[in-house]
Write a structure and sequence with these properties.
alpha+beta; Rossmann fold; Tumour Suppressor Smad4; 2 domains; 6-stranded antiparallel sheet; 17 strands
Length: 288
Amino acid sequence: MSPKTVGIIAHTGKPGAAELVGQLRTEFGQAGVTAHLESATAALVGDTSNLTIAELGAEAELLIVLGGDGTILNVVGGLKDKITPVFGINIGSLGFLTCLNSSAYRQAVESIVSGKFAFSDRALLAVEVKQNGSVVIETLALNDAVISRGKISRLIRLRTRVNSESLTEFNADGLVIATPTGSTAYSLSAGGPILAPQSGVFVITPICPHVLTNRSVIVEDSSLIEVEASNAETPVYLTVDGRDPVLLEFGSTVSIRSSDKVLPLAMLPELSFFSVLRQKLKWSGSNV
């Protein structure tokens, strides 16, 4: 893929973001590639644009996202119906999902213009909240859906089913349902396994479970996962990809399945998933 039109979306709060946007526009212009800016990104560099993330995604063949993993998650949430391929440039702290650091922006432009990159199709979760038989919330997640307690430091009970069969009632701080992409995020910090991007599974990971035998459960990505709160007295919240939490009314059911959409995420040929793991998690091996 050698796109002729790209969109640039930056985390406007990151130091150096404005300079990087300007550098990329110059490089793409010299290469004959049209670069459009999302509205907040344009304002960052003193330009004007009325394009939302979704509108920019509809116009561009490829979205260049400047920031960290959270910035990419925010962009995916803003794309809505049309999922546009993403090329991430890291100006964040970790950057599992990004291709290169900001200092290598010329290499990024060269790779994009010459088409010397590949796409890893990342599974997305289709998340629905049903109340009295009606869908009241419907959204997509690249990383995870988290059902958790609120401000009160009290365990919550979550009845969980997989393909209509009872799994268990978790008595915990919450539950993380993650894609392979999200397995290196909240689920990992809660003790879950790392899943390869194309493993074709999801993971259900309890957060601080009271029953020590409650551990992560890996299910096929064709599964339907349903979660309901068991206790009306304790507030329960749904958070999707780290976005603002939503209070779930008692009696609501959170239904999670694989979306029919995927995110084409750009990867450089020389960087495999396992090489990224070694770098980001600082796995240096043993000298023994």
